[in-house]
Amino acid sequence: SFDIGKLRDATGYVTLDSGYKNTGACKSAITFLDGEEGILRYRGYPIEQLAEKSSFLEVAYLLIYGELPTEAQLSDFAGHITKHTLVHEDIRKIFDGFPSATHPMAILSSLVCVLTGFYPESLKPNQSAADIDLTIVRLMAKMSTIAAWTYKNAMGHPLNYPRNDLDYCANFLYMMFSFPTEKYDINPVIVSALNKLLILHADHEQNCSTSTVRLVGSSNASLYGSVSAGINALWGPLHGGANQEVIEMLEAIEKDGGDTSKFIAQAKDKNSGFRLMGFGHRVYKNFDPRAKIIKKAADEVLQALGMQDSPLLKIATELEQAALTDQYFIDRKLYPNVDFYSGIIYKALGIPTEMFTVMFALGRLPGWIAQWKEMRENKEPIGRPRQIYVGATERDYTPMAERK
Ligand code: ACO
User: Fold this and answer.
1) Which residue lies with its CA nearest to atom 26 of ligand 1?
2) Using a CB cutoff of 8 Å and minimum separation of 24, what contacts does 117-124 make?
């Protein structure tokens, strides 16, 4: 149910739609989503085809520039990104100042914002298209290095500099997992799974973080500042943070003895405060098409890595089956979402739980960039929602001595 209605405030009629459940904030030509039918397309191309046939950088180009690149365009785009993966040495020093318990998402959002300090020209509202392209390339390149370094920093490991002989996903894995003392073998199955995961997360029209990027950008804030805000929006457990919560929930079920029915009963009890993480979606009231692809990818990855008997996968499958046949979940159209299986793959790839949302942010980056760019090109006005005031009517200031 949603709360929508025309209510009168002092200045006239205002539409109240808490959570924007039925309010369009913009026109967009980037992503088509039909939640009733379970359809997702980037620039018209079905997500299933892109996940199977494309690469993350090709999809990034498609989202940002509107068309699939030619071979020369893709090589140019990927080449530029590779050239910019190194970050300023001063960023290394900033890492030393973060308290050791700082969540990688906090570091990521801070350092993406701090890029404005290294590239102050990005703050100018009237940049040329070429300048914006350079900011885009820098952000795509440097965010992967910063993301990998947040992990290395949390582990207390030496930071790995990017390698220009590797493609985007292989380089990211190298920066995450290589040690100076040990040779790191890049596994093509893992590279391919990572490509797929990043593609599936690359855009999802006006979700919470993307709307944040557009809203912040609508004040003419820089791309770095707008994306930094989007990272914080994504961090919340009801949005991108859900993939971390899913794996923690599966681990809790395993620790508790593996009885999924107990947790399903708890999720149905409104007083428990517990929700089945990875189930339900604001828009998909049919199956999330990304969940189908991810489920298949999870099976393939676990098989390739010899981990097909993973207890977490078994619990996840049981939970999915139980929820899909339970009237509570059927009535509310609560299906597994993209986050339900992504955590299992990330875990199998050796990516630690607190890095899951960072991985989501890395995948969502081209979508945020494309949406920010589209908003600028469409010359959209500054975002400024209205409200229905429900507070006190006018009253006189009470001196301190008279207050109760
Ligand atoms: N477990 C149990 N019950 C649920 C769940 C769940 N995961 N999700 C929704 N419900 C119930 C609600 O209690 C409500 O029941 P009611 O009608 O009896 O009051 C009904 O289903 C509708 O739920 P809403 O919260 O109104 O749905 P909304 O569209 O606002 O929320 C959301 C969607 C936030 C994703 C929600 O389903 C949820 O909290 N899911 C778990 C967190 C999660 O997986 N988030 C990831 C989303 S995908 C992404 O960001 C990439």
Assistant:
1) 1
2) 118/88, 118/90, 118/91, 119/224, 122/222, 122/223, 122/224, 123/222
Catalytic: which of 103, 201, 281, 288? 281
Spatial distance between the Cα atoms of 45 and 59, rounded to a whole number of angstroms: 10
Query: What separation in Å is there between the alpha carbon of 277 and the centre of ligand 1?
Result: 9
CB distance 29 to 43 below 8 Å: yes
The mean pLDDT values, 10 residues at a time, for the chain of 404 residues are: 54 85 95 93 98 97 98 98 97 92 95 97 92 97 97 92 96 94 87 94 97 97 98 92 88 93 92 91 86 87 86 88 90 89 87 92 98 97 92 95 95
Establish whether this prediction's ipTM goes over 0.85. yes
CB-hemisphere CA count at 13 Å for 153? 26
CA gyration radius, the chain: 22
In this prediction the pTM is: 0.89
Most informative mutation of 270, 332, 360 for ligand 1 (most atoms within 8 A of CB)? 332
Active site residue 96: no
User: In ligand 1, which atom is closest to the CA atom of 283?
Assistant: 29
The tokens describing 300, both together, are 């393939």
**Active-site residue, 103 included:** no
In residues, how long is the chain? 404
